[in-house]
Amino acid sequence: MKHTLLSSALIIASITSISTQSEAEAAELSINITNLTNGTYFTPVLVAGHNAETSLFTSGTMASEALKKMAEGGDIGDLDAMIIGADGVTVTNPAEGLLAPATSVNDIMLTTSDSQNYLSIVAMLLPTNDGFVGLSSWPIPTTAGTYTIMLNGYDAGSEKNNELINGGGALGTLGIPVDPGMHGGTDGAGIDDLSENNNVHIHPGVLGDMDNTGGISDLDSRVHRWLNPVAKVTVTVK
Amino acid sequence: MKYLQQQSRLKLAIIGALSLMGLTACSDSDDIRAIMPPEPEPAPIVMHDFDVSVTNLTANQPLSPVVLLSHTSNLSIWQVGDPASVALEHLAEGGDTSMLVALDGIDASSVATAPIGPGANQTLSISIPEAQVAQLSIATMLVNTNDAFTGVQQIDLTSFTVDDKMTYHTMAYDAGTEANSEAKGTIPGPADMGEGFNAMRETNDRVSGHAGVISRDDGLSDSILDASHRFDNPVATITITRKK
Q1: Record: contact B226-A227, CB cut-off 8 A
Q2: Which residue of B has its CA nearest to A63?
Q3: What is the ipTM of this complex?
Q4: pLDDT by residue (tens digit) across B58-110?
């Protein structure tokens, strides 16, 4: 009887040590990303696993220079370096280029260590001035399963939304780099963006117009508008 | 051990006092009542303190001073499909919280002293007696609109332990009390500095999800609003944290 009790105690002890170990083990994630928009592309996507002290962006605060580079021109290099420098892990450009409207990139594999408990995802929304799709510091579940997250479109707050396509993708250069879908117009007058909001916020959406060779905007209101959510992400925790 | 002994002595003393009170209650003599021990101090009221942080996620819609409403009854501040109460109409058309805090069933409330600018955030506190900790509702107006508001309601506070945190991403509602004309003189926010509350009701008198504003940049020629006043959901992030 005593022997039985002792062995049950040992079994419990070994179960405890297994579960402690599994928490310390790496999490293996398989991630699918779907662009839900009608006419807006995602530039090369950054997928990052990182610790609690690191974040790609926070609503209601000023965008970092690295975030502005991504939001204004699609350049994820500095954000990637920031994550790697903070002992994080990343997958860059899983779609190998643009992720077109209403398309998906599937089975993005990300292996995180025990300190990399948070998942973040960003990509620029193109064509916009400084819009991006974002997931910020989503706590990676410790229970295996498939989780669905809907992502919103953000405005980095770093550039006026004048909606003119002029190749302006460099940091601080006003304008939209390009419309990959070739629905954009030319010779718009430009929107006078009267917002004084310099912090990251939810994008009000693009305005566009129906004049391809003038009007107020180079975007097409019938093609380029969206409503949140702009992306669907499923994360399978193995 | 010594502590235990002291404790049992204390218990005896309390029992003694209680029996004395029992006697007092039976007696008609005023003299005995005069030597009654003083009434025990009432137990201090335990308060639960909550911080509510609100981040304005819009491009150019200041949020009117936020109101926190604590209620034990299952109070509904708004109900999609039903006409707004006059109290909600005052909030949604003019940012005025005075009627909401005075609603029957509100046990405690807290009102911010300033609006929250676009992209800004603010933290407001509320202290609720333990016996009244039940539900919290939160509301604020998008002031560059005719009658849009956002918030959450009937949040169950009883499940919060100290340092527990819950975050809500909230949508814009249309109070349905004033037509969304966007016309000059009808919007109380800085875009217009026009009228707030007006007792007149629009024909479509019910609360619904807000469709967003149009603006003059998008062809509504007599709108006082411009493209930057447009918004998409969510319009605010609200985080409730139990502090004490």
Answers
A1: no
A2: B119
A3: 0.86
A4: 999 999 999 999 998 789 999 999 999 999 999 999 999 999 999 999 999 99
